[in-house]
């Protein structure tokens, strides 16, 4: 049987001219740096050989928390190539968050930024990790030093479609984060299907400006370009002006809605700036109709909105052609091979236009949560459909609309924040009786995190002090943008906090 290793499939798509440009850096140390396809081939071979030389057990996890760089992307590809399991971690995570992921996933190898080595290595060695390497965004660090001594020839490990390729942690509504296990087959089938669906073509150039520790930047954007043998213009950090300045060299751009909102605020965003562009894709959070329309008016281009998750990669998309069939406020149709249904709380199918829970099936759906069989079982129906936790409807023309979430989740600038986790930290603080964390509309981030806190009798609690304390403990994007201290929280007859009332009360805070 053929090798189903995702890396092997990506490499097979490299162009015949291996000396042509695969990636050009647009910012960061030494930019512009040019990487050829041969550089990707050799660099990933050397890193894969380094990993293989460590004699790791089969299926070892390689956890990575590094700044975005081309070498970091190569490391991802090298992990696939060597047949191990890639575990990307948001660069904003702090020690307690990292300790949980490392403790849960038990990676054999951890790669971190040189500046984080002291604390990450302490956490990793305590959890039994055997090897900790460093990788800086300027090609510094022990990973490349060691890989430099390895051969640049390597045969990709043989993998079956259902072998594990990556674990992506997504927080749970209750309890701790869960590692979604994605196989080579999940990722490759989705990438191949999107290549056709979005009509990737010879000569396409992608502007890559998303982080590479989540589905959107790591899989959808990178796989799209690699599988098409397309050049990437590589931003280590999103900067609206700088991205707009490079649009005339590109044809494809992918972003979360915040990226579109920020580019719209720039006068340099004009039809002329977009003259070579073929496709603008948005996803990871709801794209407001006003952003969709403003983009159309300003650039003449219609953003294509799609819908996905860590557990399923891409699920649905607005049509590629005709562009006039892309509808604001919808996420289009289930992608080829994906089946999607909407069910009510009794498990009955919803009629057209009726709102219910979105469930899916297909080759893209993950194998389950890492070492959490009960959680996995909870998230699947008895007949094998994955419950997305998103609430929506399918209209008379078949378009899918996401209208809310059954999971208590805030999506801020494309990052997920679970209120239960933040409430846990706040409730542990001295003087706090209880708290409710909510998401409210935000003009830049789509939703912003806000905390409403009740003090214990006679205790002094201060919002600014809570924010300062949280900044020491958790990733910065999870920290509430505002904290209100109130006498009590609104509750219903069952005693449950009425977060909808709190959201209404604070809905105009950041609009
Ligand atoms: C940054 N900040 C945020 C934030 N990002 N606050 C809330 N939400 C966010 N998303 C805050 C920081 O805490 C900091 O505040 C200040 O902004 C500056 O930080 P920064 O890192 O310099 O911000 P910036 O570079 O401007 O980042 C904004 C952003 C980034 C929009 C470019 O958040 C981003 O890249 N988002 C994309 C996320 C993504 O790729 N999601 C895909 C998930 S995959 P302070 O107070 O600390 O100074 C998925 C599946 C699917 O969902 O369907 O795709
Ligand atoms: P994550 O767990 O980070 O993969 O986030 C997945 C969640 O992002 C989904 O369950 C949706 O709630 C949300 N999401 C992704 N794309 C869209 C979209 N186009 N519109 C609305 N929500 C989206």
Question: Can you describe this structure?
Answer:
This protein is of the alpha/beta class and 511 residues long. The strands form 6 sheets. Strands 2-1-10-9-11-12-13-14-15 form a 9-stranded mixed sheet. A 4-stranded parallel sheet has the order 4-3-5-6, sandwiched between helices. A 4-stranded antiparallel sheet has the order 16-17-18-19, with no helix packed on it. Strand 11, helix 10 (257-264) and strand 12 (279-282) form a beta-alpha-beta unit. The protein has helices spanning 6-12, 37-53, 70-82, 95-105, 117-126, 142-147, 184-197, 215-227, 240-246, 257-264, 289-299, 373-379, 419-427, 463-473, 499-505; strands spanning 21-25, 34-36, 61-65, 85-88, 109-112, 131-134, 164-170, 178-183, 205-208, 231-234, 252-255, 279-282, 304-309, 313-317, 333-334, 339-343, 356-361, 386-394, 400-405, 410-412, 415-417, 432-442, 446-455, 482-486. The protein has 3 domains: 6-237, 3-Layer(aba) Sandwich (Rossmann fold), CATH 3.40.50; 330-406, Luciferase, domain 3 (Roll), CATH 2.30.38; 409-505, 2-Layer Sandwich (GMP Synthetase, Chain A, domain 3). Residues 210-211, 214-217, 237-238, 256, 258, 283-284, 308-309, 412-415, 445, 476-477 line the site of malonyl-coenzyme A.
């Amino acid at each position: 049987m053929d090798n189903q290793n995702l890396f092997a499939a990506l490499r097979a798509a490299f162009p015949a001219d291996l000396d042509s440009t695969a990636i050009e850096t647009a910012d960061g140390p030494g930019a512009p740096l040019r990487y050829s396809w041969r550089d990707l081939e050799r660099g990933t071979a050397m890193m894969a050989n380094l990993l293989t030389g460590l004699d790791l057990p089969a299926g070892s996890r390689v956890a990575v928390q590094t700044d975005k760089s081309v070498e970091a992307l190569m490391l991802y590809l090298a992990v696939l190539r060597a047949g191990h399991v890639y575990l990307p971690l948001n660069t904003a995570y702090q020690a307690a968050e990292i300790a949980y992921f490392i403790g849960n996933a038990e990676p054999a190898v951890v790669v971190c930024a040189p500046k984080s080595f002291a604390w990450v290595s302490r956490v990793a060695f305590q959890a039994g990790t055997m090897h900790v390497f460093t990788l800086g965004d300027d090609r510094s660090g022990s990973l490349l030093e060691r890989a430099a001594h390895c051969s640049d020839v390597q045969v990709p490990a043989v993998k079956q479609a259902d072998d594990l390729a990556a674990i992506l942690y997504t927080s749970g509504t209750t309890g701790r984060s869960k590692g979604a296990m994605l196989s080579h087959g999940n990722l490759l089938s989705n990438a191949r299907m999107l290549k056709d669906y979005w009509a990737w073509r010879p000569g396409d150039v992608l502007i890559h400006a998303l982080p590479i520790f989540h589905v959107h930047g790591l899989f959808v954007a990178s796989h799209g370009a690699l599988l098409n043998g397309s050049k990437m213009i590589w931003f280590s950090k999103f900067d609206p002006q700088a991205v707009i300045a490079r649009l005339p060299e590109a044809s494809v751009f992918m972003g979360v809605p915040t990226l579109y909102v920020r580019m719209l605020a720039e006068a340099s965003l004009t039809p002329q700036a977009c003259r070579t562009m073929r496709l603008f894709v948005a996803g990871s959070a709801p794209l407001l109709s006003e952003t969709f329309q403003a983009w159309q008016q300003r650039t003449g281009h219609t953003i294509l909105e799609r819908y996905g998750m860590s557990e399923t990669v891409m699920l649905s998309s607005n049509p590629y052609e005709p562009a006039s069939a892309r509808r604001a406020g919808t996420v289009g149709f289930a992608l080829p091979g994906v089946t999607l249904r909407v069910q009510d709380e009794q498990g009955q199918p919803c009629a057209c236009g009726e709102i219910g829970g979105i469930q899916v099936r297909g080759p893209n759906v993950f194998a389950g949560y890492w070492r959490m069989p009960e959680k996995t079982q909870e998230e699947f129906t008895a007949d094998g459909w994955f419950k997305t936790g998103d609430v929506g409807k399918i209209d008379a023309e078949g378009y899918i609309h996401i209208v809310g979430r059954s999971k208590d989740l805030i999506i801020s600038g494309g990052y997920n924040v679970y209120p239960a986790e933040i409430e846990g930290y706040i409730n542990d603080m001295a003087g706090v009786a209880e708290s409710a964390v909510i998401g409210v509309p935000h003009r830049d981030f789509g939703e912003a995190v806000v905390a409403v806190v009740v003090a214990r009798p006679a205790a002094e609690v201060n919002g600014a002090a809570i924010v300062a304390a949280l900044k020491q403990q958790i990733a910065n994007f999870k920290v509430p943008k505002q904290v209100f201290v109130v006498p009590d929280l609104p509750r219903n007859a069952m005693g449950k906090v009425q977060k909808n009332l709190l959201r209404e009360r604070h809905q105009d805070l950041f609009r």
